[in-house]
Design brief:
heterodimer, A: 185 residues, mainly alpha, Rna Polymerase Sigma Factor, Chain: A, Arc Repressor Mutant, subunit A, 9 helices, globular, B: 142 residues, 7 helices, 63% helix, elongated
Chain lengths: 185, 142
């Protein structure tokens, strides 16, 4: 029988914890896209997202010897570490009165509907960065990271009902800010 | 499932019933079959936003980045981004100049070169993750 994704993660972490750099390299290849994606959605800055990814995997390597399978899914733990690093940066940013780079680059409503896919992607990214942090986090976890409602709510330490409310408000705000792009055909 | 609950789930999770909470999927599909026209309208509205979100793909984790992240982790410290090389060069040049001027640059360069990257502010994110005691949600946010 083939191991599921969670079991494969656990095995790679177990080997990495014994100093197996090959296993750790595989773990980085397997999980980096998810960490990078989460950090990018949370921070809106590709370079800061790379920094968070680096810091996350430094901690994974350091803590792999103490990883105990079964207490929590490794993927959930990884999200928790990356989210905490993102929170740190957002807190510092708020202290400095900075605004996400993507939000500053918001090109605004399109003058016509012939936007290129790249432009649409930028508009969506900028609109995401304009959402309140908790709404953005809910959308990042459920939509982009494709986590289940229970897992996402657990990571955010809210009830599933509260998660649904954040998602609904976030999606409604996105619909408003992207109204000129929404095509309901 | 009521039509109101169906609409609420679509507003929160989008048009793909497969991404709704597991315990509500079957009822959602049943209602969708029983009230096709109404359900289709609700799902079409949600799908329009889903398509836009799909138009914002995540960043690429290319092989060079994978290698850099791997090496940093093994080394136990973050390295400067590629785009910041000139900062390191400027610092090095400044220190070299100071050394040439007879200052005690040798005492400075070693510690600077070997100093680990500053840790993220606040408590250790791993401890927070392990204890599930990370930063509580900001009630004023969202």
């Amino acid at each position: 029988m083939t191991a599921g994704p969670g079991e494969a993660d656990d095995e790679l972490v177990r080997l990495a914890g014994k100093g197996d750099t090959g296993a750790f390299r595989s773990l980085v290849a397997r999980k980096l896209p998810r960490v990078l994606n989460l950090a990018r959605r949370m921070l809106g800055d590709p370079e800061e997202a790379q920094d968070v990814a680096q810091e996350t995997f430094i901690r994974v390597w350091r803590h792999a010897p103490r990883w105990r399978p079964g207490r929590a899914a490794f993927d959930t733990w990884l999200h928790r570490v990356a989210l905490n690093l993102c929170y740190d940066r957002l807190r510092r940013r708020r202290g400095h009165g900075e605004i996400a780079a993507a939000a500053l680059e918001d090109p605004g409503p399109a003058p016509d509907r012939n936007l290129h896919a790249l432009d649409i992607g930028r508009r969506v990214e900028a609109a995401l960065q304009c959402l309140p942090r908790r709404q953005r986090e809910a959308i990042a976890l459920c939509h982009f990271q494709e986590l289940g409602a229970v897992e996402a709510a657990g990571l955010m330490r809210v009830s599933v009902e509260a998660l649904e409310s954040l998602l609904a408000r976030g999606r409604r705000a996105l619909r408003v800010s992207l109204a000129d792009l929404v095509d309901e055909r | 499932m009521t039509p109101e609950r169906f609409a609420a789930l679509a507003r929160s999770y989008g048009a793909d019933i497969g991404r709704w909470p597991a315990r509500e999927r079957a009822a959602g599909r049943t209602l969708s079959e029983a009230n096709r026209a109404a359900a289709a309208g609700v799902l079409a509205q949600a799908a329009a936003l889903d398509r836009l979100l799909a138009a914002a793909p995540g960043p690429a984790a290319d092989l060079a980045l994978q290698e850099r992240v791997f090496r940093c982790a093994i080394a136990g410290r973050a390295t400067p981004r590629t785009g910041r090389w000139w900062l390191g060069f400027g610092l090095g040049a400044g220190l070299a100049g100071a050394a040439a001027a007879g200052l005690a640059a040798g005492l400075l360069i070693g510690p600077l070169a070997l100093a680990p990257a500053p840790a993220a502010s606040g408590a250790d994110p791993v401890a927070q993750a392990s204890n599930l005691l990370g930063e509580p949600p900001d009630p004023a946010d969202g």
